[in-house]
Automatic annotation (TrEMBL):
Pfam families: BPD_transp_1 (PF00528). This is Inner membrane ABC transporter permease protein YdcV. It comes from the Bacteria. Gene3D superfamilies: MetI-like. GO terms for cellular component: plasma membrane. It comes from Roseovarius mucosus. Residues 67-254 form the ABC transmembrane type-1 domain.
Length: 266
């Protein structure tokens, strides 16, 4: 293969990546642009620059109620999912047992289930135990959905650990709990924080399951659906832009932590 062929292939790959990025982010960029447009309807040419729609959502108590509910649910879900994910990842790392492959398949299954089926299943289960329609129902549903993400992140970090670290702790007289506290948890700390950020972002953006189980305790994505019913509100662009910035910030923080943990690998 000649140098010209290599340049052609590299150029084609870069063009492909650019088109994919544009395809993914163009709607988000369009939403942000229209959120700063004075016109009520998203159309071209644009009107003059305005932050009116941001002012309206700032003064809207229903938006604040949905946002605060989303943040509270997201924080609780992040903690629960990360604890469960750490337990699942450490069990996989530390122990060998019959049916381990089945255990891993079931533990990582929820994200592969269609969200409509997951929502209906959660609604049926939570209704039977009289929890449907409460904030607890959203926390339970999102906890089930987010735990596999935390488990995958922490499991990846544990796979990078030198087994001799545990052996050294035992040789120095540490039991399993001491080793877990002073060796395992410090080593996985970057992944634990990354899992917290990722699971909160997943909970923050999740709509379908929350719509099934939330009742009157609506999260922000469910509130947005309410704005869409019967009217075209430019506030949706402003809300969507802020929600995207919040989620992407959490994901970037998680990625930075994971990258630093890889550099610090012993």
């Amino acid at each position: 293969m000649t140098g010209n062929d290599n340049r052609l292939i590299n150029g084609a790959l870069k063009l492909h990546i650019a088109v994919c990025v544009l395809f993914i982010f163009a709607p988000i960029l369009g939403s942000f642009v229209f959120s700063l447009n004075s016109d009520r309807f998203p159309s071209l040419p644009l009107g003059h620059f305005s932050t009116e729609w941001y002012r309206l959502i700032w003064e809207d108590p229903f938006v604040w109620a949905g946002f605060l509910n989303t943040v509270v649910v997201g924080l609780i879900v992040a903690v629960i999912a990360t604890v469960l994910g750490f337990g699942g990842a450490y069990t996989d790392f530390r122990y060998n047992f019959f049916g381990k492959n089945v255990y891993l398949a079931l533990a990582l299954l929820p994200p592969t289930i269609p969200v409509v089926i997951m929502g209906l299943a959660m609604l049926a289960f939570l209704s039977r135990v009289n929890l449907s329609g409460s904030a607890i129902s959203i926390i339970i549903a999102h906890g089930v959905m987010c735990s596999p993400f935390a488990m995958a992140i922490i499991r990846l970090r544990l796979s990078q650990m030198d087994p001799d670290l545990e052996a050294a702790s035992w040789n120095l007289g540490g039991n399993e709990w001491a080793t877990l506290r002073h060796v395992i948890i410090p080593f996985t700390k970057p992944a634990i924080f990354a899992a917290l950020f990722i699971t909160m972002a997943v909970s923050f953006d999740e709509f379908a399951v929350a719509w099934f189980v939330s009742g009157l305790n609506e999260t922000l994505p469910v509130k947005i659906l309410g704005f869409l019913q019967g009217q075209v509100s430019p506030r949706i662009n402003a809300i969507g832009s802020l929600a995207f910035l919040s989620s992407i910030t959490l994901i970037i923080l998680a990625q930075m932590l994971l990258r630093n943990s890889t550099k610090d690998k012993p």
